[in-house]
Amino acid sequence: MFDAELLTDTLPRAHALDAPPAGGGEPIDVTWQELENAADEMDAVEATAPKGKRGGWAGRLRRVKLLVRDVELSRFTEQGRLRIDRLLHLVGMVGAGKSTLRDILTYHLVTRTPRRVTIVVGDVAETLAVVRPARCAGGADPRALDQGAQHQPAAPPHRHGRRRHHARA
């Protein structure tokens, strides 16, 4: 049985599986400055809520270094641009900023491009942590998200222990 507040008359929009990818399948190419601007904007959006968690996005991003593999030099070098062409392996120590970079990049993409973003995480706790900033990007009131998270029924088990989350502009 579901709470009445969880039921809605609006059906989710279906995916057109035969449609070309948003952005034409072109690689994602974003500058570090664009990510810093997105982090500042995320902080500004969260600041409009009188209470609730703040991500501190700009401060967190300042602690991250983007090191990209330079094939010619056979080493990682600091870069001012992130390019994702099909697949990107994002690695780093615990607390290095991988999730921060993922969340800010997602915000940038859903607010500045027609792209759809799918994030796959391993558990419900991380699901809630990922969905909150993504929904704020769409203009949802962060206070409502905090209250809604407390009343959500437990999610049913999902095959392979993974959940998929979509953020769209």
How is this structure best summarized?
The protein has 169 residues and is α+β, with helices and mostly antiparallel strands. It has 5 helices and 6 strands; from the N terminus they run βααβββαβααβ.
Strand order of the largest sheet: 1-4
Largest sheet: 2 strands, antiparallel
What fraction of residues sit in β-strands?
15-25%
Unreliably modeled segments: 140-169
Overall mean pLDDT stands at: 76
User: What's the N-to-C terminus distance?
Assistant: 31 Å
The structural class is alpha+beta
Number of strands: 6
User: What percentage of residues falls in helices of 4 or more residues?
Assistant: 25-40%
Number of helices, counting only DSSP H or I runs of 4 residues or more: 5
Order of helices and strands: EHHEEEHEHHE
The number of domains: 1
Radius of gyration (Å) = 18 Å
Question: What's the shape?
Answer: globular
Description:
The protein has helices at residues 32-47, 57-62, 98-112, 124-137, 142-150, and strands spanning 28-31, 67-70, 75-78, 81-84, 116-121, 163-168. The protein has 169 residues and is α+β, with helices and mostly antiparallel strands. It has one domain (28-168). The strands form 3 sheets. It has a two-stranded antiparallel sheet. The protein has a two-stranded antiparallel ribbon with strand order 2-3. The longest helix has 16 residues, at 32-47. The two termini are 31 Å apart.
